[in-house]
């Protein structure tokens, strides 16, 4: 009995040792990792559309007869439109993939023909000569010549497809302009229309900074080439134009231009 017990114990110990030895031949199981196909530098081109309403808002005003003119509705408080333009350019960036997640940075620069022109016209209802029936025409324009961004990107990759969000600095060359034109039906007693044409042109053209935020989807159709589609909201710094009356000193009115736009575009990238 004792010899059987000793033999049985030896068998168990031997089997356990052999099993442990066999297990040591196998590496621990780990789940397969996502291939890092998105890591690296890339460059490409983009093309799409840009939209803006060219909104302008009336601000501070003072003096006569300007205050009366504002009360008569000759200078609107809010004016906006609806205009599309073409936007296209180039971009460079870098991605780093860790698992299914991708983080990176991208810089782009584009040219655009986006120009929003809003017009307003009203006949002066004032009965006082010589303003009776004066045709007052104002226009408000926003012209965005080019646009650049420097943004961070963060996304989730599922194989060759990457969905991402992106945001950062935006900058661009913007021109805002306010025009005033008048036609007097009576001038110096003459019974015929007299068009004074451009009473004044007030404008501001400068580089403007702001921010861009949006996102998109990118898909690799080869190891090096990928296509993307993205949508961004861009808000550039507002512009204030100070209008001073060339006929009546002390008359002044300010207009604030809201320089924001929405961009929808597609792009082609080449990964190095």
UniProtKB/TrEMBL annotation:
- Which keywords belong to this entry? Cell outer membrane, Membrane, Signal
User: Residue limits of the Outer membrane protein beta-barrel domain?
Assistant: 17-239
What SUPFAM superfamilies is this protein classified in?
OMPA-like
- What InterPro entries does the database record attribute to this sequence? Beta-barrel_OMP (IPR027385), OMP-like (IPR051692), OMP/PagP_B-barrel (IPR011250)
Q: Which residues form the signal peptide?
A: 1-20
Its family remark reads: Belongs to the Omp25/RopB family.
Question: Which organism's genome codes for this protein?
Answer: Fulvimarina manganoxydans
Gene3D superfamilies in UniProt: 2.40.160.20
Q: Give the UniProt entry's GO cellular component terms.
A: cell outer membrane
Q: Does the keyword Signal apply?
A: yes
Q: Which Pfam families match?
A: OMP_b-brl
Answer yes or no on keyword Membrane: yes
Which cell locations does it reside in?
Answer: Cell outer membrane
Protein's name in the database:
Outer membrane immunogenic protein
């Amino acid at each position: 009995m004792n010899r059987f017990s000793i033999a049985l114990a030896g068998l168990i110990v031997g089997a356990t040792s052999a099993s442990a030895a066999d297990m040591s031949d196998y590496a621990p199981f780990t789940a397969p990792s996502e291939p890092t196909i998105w890591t690296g530098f890339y460059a490409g081109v983009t093309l799409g559309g840009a939209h803006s309403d060219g909104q302008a808002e009336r601000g501070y005003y003072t003096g006569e007869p300007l205050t009366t003119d504002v009360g008569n509705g000759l200078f609107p408080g809010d004016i906006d439109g609806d205009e599309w333009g073409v936007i296209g350019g180039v971009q460079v960036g870098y991605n780093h993939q860790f698992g299914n997640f991708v983080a990176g940075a991208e810089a782009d620069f584009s040219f655009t023909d986006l120009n929003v022109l809003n017009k307003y016209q009203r006949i002066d209802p004032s009965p006082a000569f010589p303003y009776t029936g004066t045709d007052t025409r104002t226009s408000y324009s926003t012209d965005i010549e080019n646009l650049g961004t420097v943004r961070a990107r963060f996304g989730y990759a599922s194989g060759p497809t990457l969905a991402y969000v992106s945001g950062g600095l935006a900058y661009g060359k913007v021109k805002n302009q306010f025009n005033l034109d008048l036609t007097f039906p009576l001038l110096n007693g003459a019974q015929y229309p007299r068009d004074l044409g451009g009473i004044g042109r007030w404008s501001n053209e400068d580089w403007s900074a702001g921010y861009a935020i949006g996102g998109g989807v990118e898909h690799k159709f080869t190891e090096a080439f990928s296509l993307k589609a993205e949508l961004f909201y861009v808000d550039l710094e507002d512009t204030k134009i100070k209008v001073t009356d060339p006929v009546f000193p002390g008359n002044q009115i300010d207009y604030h231009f809201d320089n924001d736009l929405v961009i929808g575009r597609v792009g082609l990238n080449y990964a190095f």
